[in-house]
Amino acid sequence: AVFLTNVCVSCVCAGGLGQLGIGLAQILREQYGSENVILSDIKKPPSHVLNRGPFVYADILDYKHLRELVVNNRITWLVHYSALLSAVGEANVALARKINITGLHNVLDLALENSLRIFVPSTIGAFGPSSPRDPAPDLCVQRPRTIYGVSKVHCELMGEYLHYKYGLDFRCLRYPGVISVNTPPGGGTTDYAVQIFHDALSTGHHECYLRKETRLPMMHISDCHRATVEFMQAPQCQLSLRTYNIAAMSFTPEEVAQEIRKHLPHLKVTYNPDSVRQTIADSWPVRFDDSNARRDWGWEPAFGLQELVSDMLQSIRNKRATDGLSIS
Ligand SMILES: NC(=O)C1=CN([C@@H]2O[C@H](COP(=O)(O)OP(=O)(O)OC[C@H]3O[C@@H](n4cnc5c(N)ncnc54)[C@H](O)[C@@H]3O)[C@@H](O)[C@H]2O)C=CC1
Ligand SMILES: CC(=O)[C@H](N)C(=O)O
């Protein structure tokens, strides 16, 4: 799909130094030119990020500075990734409310004021124990029991409201737990599904904070990035919703461990459930129904569990070899 033909696209990715932002910026830069995609965050960027394109310090709570950034750089798209995830959010509810809700209001106001297109991700965490869990459809009861989930439902509804009232081009995907190698996850309930690969190739032992039968929707990061870009580029007329579920696979800790053992038979997994994260996981969907995304804008994942495991093990092996670390 062609997006904004003949227009200089300038995009800012806020909260861009987390697990997802760096990779998304890379893909957008390949398509639109590195100078046209600005990464922003409140953390110090590693040198490999600084070498690849513009980075600016921007606190999502500082509206005036954000406005300056948008105006001075003639920004047309805003990707809002700044957030506190589910587990860290429960550990600091006041901060999560500020970043996830006040921060969201800032970017929505900015988008309205400056006619920006805006993408904000939601999550499987936007559902709760009273939602249908297998599968969770796009439209159903949403009563999450975390501040993270509450802030994401608020985001979905605010974006949709502003779209219908003022024509804001708000787009939102509900991501499953995202699995990646290069940047560690930021404190969520699905983080074990990244750590287990690193442990498998380092110590050969993973202690899992979820029970072995806890099934959750998951996705390889490259599918997540591709879905995001394809959805951002989809023509308005194809979208029947502003917020879509996207799915790729669902697995339990035991199932991913079994798949890893096909490559590394010595992997040992012990289970020591953490009550906060287990309670959160038990309230989330076990599977996502993404039929609307498939129908409306052609979403299709490339990675299933087998492909995910092979790719993760290969990528971590390569990374450990480059870093001079031993491989178990
Ligand atoms: N990683 C995952 O599995 C999933 C992520 N998502 C969503 O995707 C988005 C990105 O997630 P991740 O990259 O995984 O999160 P992350 O926790 O790795 O990164 C979030 C970033 O926000 C930044 N941030 C925190 N406070 C800020 C502030 N005041 N101003 C500006 N930036 C600030 C942090 O420094 C961090 O780099 C989030 O909205 C998250 O809810 C949704 C579902 C799954
Ligand atoms: C699924 C998510 O939104 C995130 N990874 C979390 O576990 O909080």
Automatic annotation (TrEMBL):
Boundaries of each NAD-dependent epimerase/dehydratase domain copy? 14-247
Pathway the protein acts in: Amino-acid degradation; L-threonine degradation via oxydo-reductase pathway; glycine from L-threonine: step 1/2
Name the Gene Ontology biological process terms.
Answer: L-threonine catabolic process
Q: According to the UniProt entry, what is the EC number of this protein?
A: 1.1.1.103
Which EC main class describes this enzyme? Answer: oxidoreductase
Q: Which SUPFAM superfamilies match?
A: NAD(P)-binding Rossmann-fold domains
Q: Which family does it belong to?
A: Belongs to the NAD(P)-dependent epimerase/dehydratase family.
Can you say what this protein is called?
Answer: L-threonine 3-dehydrogenase, mitochondrial
- What is the source species? Gouania willdenowi
**Upper classification of the organism:** Eukaryota, Metazoa, Chordata, Craniata, Vertebrata
